[in-house]
Amino acid sequence: MAMAKKRKLKILLVNPPNCGRSIPEENYGITSLRRIFKGEPFNLEVLAGPLHDHEVMILDLKCETGDALGMAFHQFQPDVVGFTALTCEANTVIRMAEQIKENGTATVVIGGNHATYDPGYFNRVGFDYIVMGLGKQSFLELMDCLARGQDGQGIVGIAKVFPGRPLQYRKRDYGEADLMDEIPPRYDLVSRYRDQYFLEHLGMTMGFVITACGCPHRCSFCAIPEMTGGKYLNHSVQAVIRDIGLLGDVPFVRMVDANTFGNLDLARDLCERIMNAGIRKKFFADVRADTIAKNPELMRQWKEAGLYAVVVGFEDFHDDRLADYNKKYQGKVIDKAIDILHDLGIVIVGDFIASPEYGEPDFKKLEDFILARRIQIPVISVLTPVPGTPLYERMKKDIVVSDLDYYTFTNAVTRTKMPEAEFYQAYADLVRRLHRQPYHPN
Fold it and tell me: What stretch of H or E contains 304?
């Protein structure tokens, strides 16, 4: 039997606007804590890579104004609209999907973080398919099915939506082939937005290069491992070097990997290749404190190759809380990592978690730690049990705010130990004091 002829689809991939809500702003007039998620929609660029048989457009609503979605839908006339969504963006995307369905017959697909962790949340009118986890291969398979006029039901890693009925799907057994390493991201599809992908703290225009997917660690608050079914999949050094080159003259490169340098052999090889190729970029990586502490020579080599700043998920500095977050190391490791980074002159972007259990003394101790350790760019989030994490399973009985619009990591969705107004004021005051003298890059 002859295979159905494949037609060329018009595919619109949409990054939702900033849409999270703020309890401290709405209830207490504290406007300084609203978090803006404005970064390159890199997952959509990666997703678009293998769709060379189709016409693809990326619409970044974090960079647009007005009814950009309506205008793009009218002008582009897509056959397929694909949304991505963080947890705090899920409700907004649902409304946008309903808008699409009211105005046309396009197939609507949802993927990204929340679709992976809680796919049933999108089993409703407005969507046709849900893509779970690393979607580069499975989304391509879905598009090819639709292009042949076939139903996408049964594709591994994808659920067809049947509102009112349980989702039926098979989880994908991810492997290196799912990375489709030979196919680069479609950087060209966001070229019109490039000047807006600006890292304010470091004062540089930035581009993303993916080095790995997933994470081998199991921090209790993090759902990243679920994206690849618990596996840690590394892109080849050749692919990373290729993608750095495709970014052109972008001066600052963010290496996308929740655990950069998690594969030490690849990290050393990539560092050597960058130096041998004469690449002159400033690199930004996410590196665990224990990786830094155990590998000072690797960090020194990367400093020579252009490593300018690292995000370190310190989360806390008390051994009991580190154990509760399943960090698998103690506070002395953090001190050693900080000393190494300062000795090398690498900028520290330190991630910390403020628990709703905090009292005034806890905020003071956190501030003292950050100042004493000279963390140049501290980022403080409120502990948030996000669906799909071990933390959520443990704390869901304590959740008092179920509206996902508030899951921005600046809202307490469980009860605070302090009176709520005092908690948010203490949190806002700490952030304000720490940012009073912002870091100025050299």
Answer: helix 296-305
33 close to 77: Cβ distance less than 8 angstroms: no
* Residue-averaged pLDDT of the chain: 93
Provide the Cα torsion 82, 388, 91, 411; round to 10°. -130
Per-residue pLDDT tens over the stretch 203-212: 678 899 999 9
Does residue 36 have a pLDDT over 70? Answer: no
- DSSP codes of every residue in 238-269: HHHHHHHHHTTT-SEEEEE-TTTTSSHHHHHH
Residue 10 and residue 286: Cα distance in Å, rounded?
35
The pLDDT, as a whole number, for residue 103 is: 87
Residue 1, C-beta contacts closer than 8 angstroms, at least 6 positions apart: none
d(CA 282, CA 274): 11
Q: What is the DSSP letter of 369?
A: H
AA identity, residue 98: E
Q: How far apart (Å, rounded) are the C-alpha atoms in residues 163 and 152?
A: 16
Query: Which CATH number is 197-434's, of 1.10.630.10, 3.20.20.70, 3.40.50.10610, 1.10.12.10?
Result: 3.20.20.70
Three-state SS annotation for 26-67: HHHCCCCCCCCCCCCCHHHHHHHCCCCCCEEEEEECCCCCCC
Domain boundaries, the chain: 10-176, 197-434
d(CA 69, CA 332): 50
pTM of the model: 0.94
Mapped onto helix, strand or coil, the DSSP state of residue 92 is helix
How far apart CA 10 and CA 56 sit, in angstroms, is 6
State which CATH number among 2.60.120.260, 2.30.30.100, 3.30.300.20, 3.40.50.280 fits the domain covering 10-176: 3.40.50.280
Angle, vertex CA 22, rays to CA 18 and CA 24, nearest 5: 150
pLDDT at 3: 61
Amino acid, res. 371? L
CA-to-CA separations, 390 to 220, 258, 394, 396, 441, in angstroms, rounded: 5, 17, 6, 10, 37
Return the structure tokens found at 207.
């581009």
The pLDDT value given to residue 120:
95
Confidence (pLDDT) at 437: 60
- What's the pLDDT tens digit per position in 409-438? 999 999 999 999 999 999 999 999 998 765
Band (pLDDT 50/70/90 cuts) for residue 38 is low
Can you tell me the distance from the alpha carbon of 45 to that of 13, in angstroms, rounded to the nearest whole number? 9
Can you give the pLDDT at residue 197? 87
What's the CA gap between 375 and 369, in Å, rounded?
A: 9
Q: Which of 255-259, 332-336, 388-392 has the highest mean pLDDT?
A: 332-336
